[in-house]
Task: structure prediction
Amino acid sequence: MTKKYVLLILFSSISTFCFSDDHLTYRTATGEVLQCNLNDGKDADDVMKMVKNDWYDLDYPVQYEGWVLTPTLFASTDGGYDLFWAGFTLNNSDMGASLDWFNNNASKVFAKWQNLVSCASWSQWDIFEARRPTVELVEGDNNFWAFHSCDFKEGKGVSDLRDNDKLWNNFLDNLGHKGGVWRWWAGGGSDTQNSTDYYVNISFPTMKEYGDYRDARMQSMMDGSMPEQIANCQTPRVYSANNIKTMSN
Result:
């Protein structure tokens, strides 16, 4: 998926979708992602200074959460984006309301953003949380995200996700994993030529914890204890995620 890797966030407050038969709960949200390159003479520090002041002060009419994301582990074929803006609301209605408000009230802030970066795409995403983080989001947090593109195996589909999530959550519990897992489905503005079924991201407080997870996967592959995989997922790209604004603000 060239030029199209996106990141997930630690949600401080998101919607809930429940399966009544066994109490498994998926929290849901809507995301927007801008994929951008720095303009000549600008750097990531310039962007962070601007968003921590100007973007943070925006008084959205709905709960809105924002992050600046930068590549950490990536390939030369990934599209070469320097950074991403990732914003999140509780649902699609709130995302629409935030965009209506932004278009009418934030032209000066967006002009400052465009002076720093040039963005090639702006897309929306429907998000299901498969694993809830054990640590609450704190405004200003820095985290790491391992992001995969995935396709269902032959004979597998959406109806298999719930049972598979239980197996993987047990695997991560035994590992002592503190982060979350989110599954993203393409929405408005996504690449219509891309055939990937969905995207999944796992969050890590540190790169060491990411390394611990990769070691555990390798060991489980060798001893045959890895949970069944219902999808073929590409190797992850890893990003640093810098929180700007939480939903509570």
The beta strands are 15-18, 25-38, 65-73, 83-89, 117-131, 142-152, 181-186, 198-204, 231-233, 237-245. The chain has five helices and ten strands. Helices lie at 44-55, 92-105, 107-116, 161-175, 207-223. Residues 105 and 127 are 27 Å apart (CA to CA).
